[in-house]
């Protein structure tokens, strides 16, 4: 039976969703916090993880997830708030769905992510990384990642500094050529768009890591 992990602080709100999914052939394991989730992840092989947006210590969950597994994550939210959705993608979510949840749509998304994760490129596959400055395309072996000019420059700049934490202020000045404003989300938007394009090519989200309160880091362990 296909297993799904649901992380939800308000467990009573999850019962109807779980019953609907179980009636369609899924086994649901429910926990109420991020650290209990990691215990279950160590014990079980889940198809996908459903994460309530307001689970306490959600940031800690993403940090631990990056170290422990590659299981796809769908964030469940109370509303389709643009800021919350962007933050979820920035933290590393593979998908985001707002209430009220259509169970059939949710399961379709689960199946899409499962197929995508089955195809994911393993670390040893990243032997060659090529940059085409004319077409703004990055080639990782046979995967061609077509980016906008700004996304391409950000990707290349982070790659050239792989393994290092590059601050948002530095990226803003060196790549976007302007100072970072207090409420400026332009840089985050470009990174978020790049990650979505990477996901479509089955490239691991951990290639570009968010370092909370500092900036971004291109993973040297995956290249």
UniProtKB/TrEMBL annotation:
SUPFAM superfamilies: C-terminal effector domain of the bipartite response regulators, CheY-like
DNA-binding region: 118-220
Keywords: Cytoplasm, DNA-binding, Phosphoprotein, Transcription, Transcription regulation, Two-component regulatory system
Keyword check for Zinc: no
Gene3D superfamilies: 3.40.50.2300, 6.10.250.690, Winged helix-like DNA-binding domain superfamily/Winged helix DNA-binding domain
Domain OmpR/PhoB-type: 118-220
Modified residues (4-aspartylphosphate): 52
Name by which UniProt lists this protein: Response regulator transcription factor
Organism: Shewanella electrodiphila
């Amino acid at each position: 039976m296909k297993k799904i992990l649901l992380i939800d602080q308000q467990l009573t709100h999850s019962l109807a969703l779980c019953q609907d999914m179980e009636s369609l052939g899924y086994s649901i394991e429910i926990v109420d916090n991020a650290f209990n989730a990691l215990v279950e992840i160590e014990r079980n092989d889940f198809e996908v993880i459903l994460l309530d947006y307001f689970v306490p210590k959600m940031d800690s969950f993403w940090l631990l997830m990056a170290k422990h597994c590659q299981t796809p994550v769908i964030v469940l939210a109370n509303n389709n708030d643009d800021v919350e959705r962007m933050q979820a993608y920035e933290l590393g979510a593979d998908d985001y769905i707002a209430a009220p949840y259509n169970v059939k749509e949710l399961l379709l998304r689960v199946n899409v992510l499962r197929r995508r994760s089955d195809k994911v490129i393993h670390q040893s596959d990243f032997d060659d990384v090529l940059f085409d400055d004319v077409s703004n395309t990055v080639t990782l072996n046979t995967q061609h990642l077509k980016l906008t000019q700004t996304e391409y420059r950000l990707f290349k700049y982070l790659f050239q500094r792989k393994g290092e934490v590059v601050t948002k202020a530095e990226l803003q000045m060196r790549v976007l050529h302007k100072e970072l404003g207090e409420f400026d989300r332009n840089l985050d938007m470009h990174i978020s768009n790049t990650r979505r394009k990477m996901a479509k090519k089955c490239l691991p989200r951990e290639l570009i890591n968010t370092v909370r309160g500092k900036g971004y880091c291109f993973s040297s362990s995956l290249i």
